Amino acid sequence: MKIVYWRGEHYWLGRLLDHPEIMSQGETVAELEESLRDALALLSLST
Asked: What residues does each domain of the chain span?
């Protein structure tokens, strides 16, 4: 999973490179990565 992430004003924000429509946020980079993994898993289940 390749992500691009950056520090926002209050949260870390990021998106998946292979699925740029999947974006998320987290209080830490680890929380952001977990959120993106969850979103990718949900996308995989819906296809």
From this structure: 3-46
Strand order through the sheet with 3-7: 3-7, 12-16, 23-26
Specify the pTM.
Answer: 0.88
CB proximity list for 42: less than 8 A, separation 6 or greater: none
Please answer whether residues 14 and 37 qualify as being in contact, where contact means their C-beta atoms are separated by less than 8 angstroms.
Answer: no
CA angle centred on 12, ends 9 and 13, rounded to 5°: 100
- Write the single-letter amino acid at 31: E
Contacts of 8 (CB under 8 A, 6+ apart): 25
Instruction: Inform me whether the pLDDT recorded for 2 exceeds 90.
Output: yes
Q: According to DSSP H, which parts of 1-47 are helical?
A: 29-46
